[in-house]
Amino acid sequence: MRSKRKISLLLAASLLAAVTVLSGWMIYDELSSRQKEKEDFDALAELVEMPVTNPPITSEPPPAETAEPGEATEPEEPLRDLSPLFEQNSECIGWLCIPNTAVNYPVMHTPRNPQKYLRMNFYGEYSQSGVPFLDYRCSVDSGNLLIYGHNMKNGTMFGELKNYTDPAFCADHPIIEFQTADGLLHYTVSKVKITDTSDKWYEDISGELFEENRCLVLSTCYGGGNGRLLIIATEIQ
């Protein structure tokens, strides 16, 4: 009797050890995957990093700028060089950035396969984080742009967007940048809305809902189930 009990205890202990090892391996594998995804995006961000526009060091004083009377001169804003991304993946249409946040990613667009990048990385491999992508009903020339991204628990992708429910965060991060082959557009956050996919308003956000303004809408999961958080930003003319 004692012998059987001892064997049962040994089997239970072995099973617990196996489960512990398996759980530890799964956690390690997931963390490794998350780290690799972050490193891949960091590499892409470095590839398109905005150039530094510091003037060359010289002992001579800089020449005075001249302009015609009544003509205003403004320095051109530096742009990211997106051509390496377009060459590597033709489904990349631009770059999305919210300064001083983790939102700094390429944006994909596949109208014939709308959710292709939901679980796929920039290089076409499986990815839990995916890549932000433009709604299939939109194009880069649309008046309104709707971009989806995952609400990742580690704060990557659109994980930081939930902070916009705090007015202080919204006030500190009002600008969203979206650059395409046509240039760089700036948007200012005008509304933060919590809704769900059953709301007809949600279905219409890529259409004429904002016809009076050109808007950029960032959409991510919120609160579980079909809940959605929308960050609505109006183009700065």
What is the CATH architecture term of the domain at 83-235? Beta Barrel
The fold-level CATH name of the domain at 83-235 is: Sortase, Chain: A
Helix-strand category? alpha+beta
Tally of helical segments: 4
CA-based shape: globular
DSSP helix fraction: 25-40%
Report the C-alpha radius of gyration, rounded: 24 Å
Largest sheet: 8 strands, mixed
Say how many strands there are: 8
| CATH homologous superfamily placement of the domain at 83-235 | Sortase
Beta-strand portion reads 15-25%
**Mean pLDDT value:** 81
Low-confidence stretches: 25-29, 54-62
Strand order of the largest sheet: 2-1-5-6-8-7-4-3
- Write down the CATH class of the domain at 83-235: Mainly Beta
User: How far is it from the N-terminal to the C-terminal residue, by CA?
Assistant: 84 Å
The SSE string, one letter per element, is HHEEEEHEEHEE
Quick description:
This protein has helices spanning 2-47, 83-88, 167-172, 200-203, and strands at 92-97, 104-108, 133-134, 145-148, 175-180, 183-196, 215-221, 227-235.
Write up this protein.
With 237 residues, the protein is of the alpha+beta class. Helix content is 26%, strand content 22%. Strands 2-1-5-6-8-7-4-3 form an 8-stranded mixed sheet, covered by helices on one side. The longest helix has 46 residues, at 2-47. The radius of gyration is 24 Å and the shape is globular.
Task: List the SSEs and their pairings.
Layout: H1 2-47, H2 83-88, E1 92-97, E2 104-108, E3 133-134, E4 145-148, H3 167-172, E5 175-180, E6 183-196, H4 200-203, E7 215-221, E8 227-235
Parallel strand pairs: 4-7
Antiparallel strand pairs: 1-2, 1-5, 3-4, 5-6, 6-8, 7-8
